Amino acid sequence: MNKVDKIKEYLLKNPSKLRKDYSETADLFNTNYEVVRGTARRLRKELGDTEYQKEKEVINIEEQENDLKVYVENSSRVKSIDDLIKHCKIDLNDWEINKYDIGTYEVTGFNKDNYPTTVTMYRMKAWLTRVKPELNLNLISKQLKEDLKDLSPRIERIKRDRSDRKDMYLLEISAFDLHLGKIGIKGDDYSLEIAEERLFDAIDHLLYRSQGYNVDKILFIIGNDFLNSDGDWPIPSTTKGTPQFNSNYHIDIYRAGRKMLIKAINYLYETAPVHVMVVPGNHDRESMMHLGDTVQLYYENNDNVVVDNSDCLMKMLVYGKNMVIADHGDGAKLNNLPAIISQRYKNAWSDVDFVEVHRGHLHTNKSAKLAAIEELAGITVRNLSSMSATDYWHDSKGYIGNIKKAQAFLYHRKNGLQCIMNYNVEIS
Length: 428
Known about the structure:
It is a single chain. The protein has helices at residues 3-13, 22-28, 33-47, 81-87, 137-149, 192-209, 250-268, 285-298, 337-344, 392-397; strands at residues 58-63, 67-75, 95-110, 116-130, 169-174, 215-223, 274-279, 305-308, 315-319, 322-327, 354-359, 366-370, 379-383, 405-412, 416-424. By secondary structure, it is α/β, with parallel strands linked by helices. It has a six-stranded mixed beta sheet with strand order 8-7-6-5-14-15. Strand 6 (215-223), helix 7 and strand 7 form a beta-alpha-beta unit. The protein is elongated and about 115 Å long.
């Protein structure tokens, strides 16, 4: 082993000597200062001195009209695609990621105590494509919020004098399965205009019938196949893809439905604060959640309206000793409801004595009383009717003769359901 190799061996065993005490080391090996310093510098370079000779991070961005390429080299901070988006300041409103590649390599250097240490370095490539404005959901959502700012002014809760009222009631108004856009058979005409007329005739009638009760809250359940389809592409169809015949384009049905719901809620909260439940159906599962999101945004500054558009398809409201639950009726089996409800809402059992479950989907009235569950006397499940027309499919299957109607339910705060009122569509 020559003298230089002996010096290298000594320096590796004594890493603190790699940057200092060169004269002392030179005397130890009977050589000069420059030989030791040169040997130490070459050795640090061979090992990869990340503290003193750190490779500079390189970021290269190549932008074309509709494409963006990003290259990152020698990085210790860009370790993921999220890091790349952050540090390269990529706006995902403008660009979407097609693919990316991450590689790593190790560099040995010295820590602050002059001991060798290994550092993992990253290199990354990403290819992005410009987002088309009409497909940019983030941008559309942002623009929608901006558009609705002026449409959702701050509205304080309406002060109502209830000092002389002893008995308080919840009024539930349920107009299920309106199927906006459905085409009725001959003799049972249906259109967006007819659907709106039926909805507001029902609301007027049911509010009038409830005048004798001290209503201090209204439950308005929306959805349950409020729209007849979930879109037009490639053809009008339900969420699962069952083809439908519609009277209008889906976007026109959606807009008509939005205006209809806002008009109805505005009308209702003049009587009492309104709790809105959004219950998507099997025909409009995604569109109804989008519509519910728009309604929720519209009323977020209105203290008279609460909109529940939560992810769960089953919605619940506790009013005094009452628990009112709504779901569409195409999911859980009837006999499984007690177990599902007892688990989902187990924290509310001690607070309620009466449980009502209202479902749509079947377009007909029927009810069932299910077995008692622990502290509960039982669960009543009701399938509610529809005011929509009979279409060709239902007519061909013989599903005819159901009374077209909407219903309202009055719950006493302590004594449960007291009254059921019907609005039957006039038959011309």
